[in-house]
Amino acid sequence: MNVPFFLARRIRQAPIESFSATVTKVGIASIAVGLAVMIVAFAVLFGFKQTIQDKIFLFGAHLQVSKFTANQSYEEAPISTNTRFFREVKSNPGIAHVQAVALKAGILKTPDELAGVVLKGVGPDYNWQLIEQSLVAGRVPAIGTDSARAATGPPDTTAGYSTEILLSQFLADQLKLKVGESVITYFLGGSQPRPRKLTVVGIYMTGLEEFDKQIVLGDLRLIQRLNNWTPDMVGSFELFVRDFDQLDATFRTVFDQIPPDFRLFKVTEQYGPLFDWMVLLDRNTLVFLILILFVASFNMVSVLLVLMMERTPMIGLLKALGSQNTLLRRMFLYVGLNMVGWGLLIGNAVGLGFCFVQDYFKLIPLDPKNYFMSFVPIQWDWGVIGLLNGATLVLIAAVLWLPTLVINRIEPVRALVFKK
């Protein structure tokens, strides 16, 4: 028979109204609350980071390749899709998707309002998946089809391109535009501005002002025509890596492939402040994790010391009967581990339950103007959840061994008359 385990079980069977039972509940509650808070904190942190990254990747690819130019405006030097680099980079094992885009500055004008914007021209190879998740009205433009024609001025009417555009909720509110309405867009270039009548077919919202205040998505062929480019000319290539954690490694392989007159940017460089902010969140969460584990460990040490104090006469009796200190220490260690087990079980139930409810029902809203999202996001990472459970169990189990050292200093004679 496992004597320490048997004695530990008898200790746990103390009457509900006893002081030791109350202290035990406090110990279990401290672990449960600590673990639940850690699970929720990490799920929300990862959800927040993933949401912000997805919003950045709406208009900022993992890697961007463009031509060297001294021009600091949105007027880009053209790159041909017939280049050797464009063919080779598609076969790079670290690259998941490549798409050609171009930028053109313009002004959206309605009878009452106007707004400076940047038209991002995209082609049939553009990945709309992330954009579709941010749609609040309408649909994405039908790119690559001659669904419409230019509205004004020769010779542009001879070239077919889609006049459908997708703009942000911010611009739609500013210009008082709705899905299905048309807007005149003036593009600079040449001796005078060139107007085009474009149709709003969709409205998106990211919550990131850097995008919402200026980015409009349209047909790449429109920009090609405005810039007098041939059909194979684009402004830049956007590259998406297979594993974002390997961004730096993929950057180096792509850098070795680009011609000398090309330049390569990482999204972490283009939007450095946002990524630095997320790194700061990681550090704050680590400090938070350490504090939670410290408080839980301190509570468990206190609980175990109280239990040993209450059981001092029993310890003295067992020592008088010949029990070794190791046996008595293992007995109280089993008591502590039992509390840890119940605390982990309850903490997982509470933490995961809260995350499931928030993930499916979106009960906690957020102000998109301040948090870039309309509700608290949840990101599931079972590896991290398992690591939190394991770290809590191992750390507290190691800490629980320390208060049991007090047993070595308890003398049987004094312990037997402790209550007196």
From TrEMBL:
It is a multi-pass membrane protein. GO terms for cellular component: plasma membrane protein complex. It is found in: Cell membrane. Residues 29-225 form the MacB-like periplasmic core domain. Keywords: Cell membrane, Membrane, Transmembrane, Transmembrane helix. GO terms for biological process: lipoprotein localization to outer membrane. Pfam families: FtsX (PF02687), MacB_PCD (PF12704). The chain crosses the membrane at residues 26-48, 286-309, 339-361, 382-402. InterPro entries: ABC3_permease_C, Lipoprotein-release_system, MacB_PCD. Its main location: membrane. Residues 287-412 form the ABC3 transporter permease C-terminal domain. Belongs to the ABC-4 integral membrane protein family. LolC/E subfamily. This is FtsX-like permease family protein. It comes from Rudanella paleaurantiibacter.
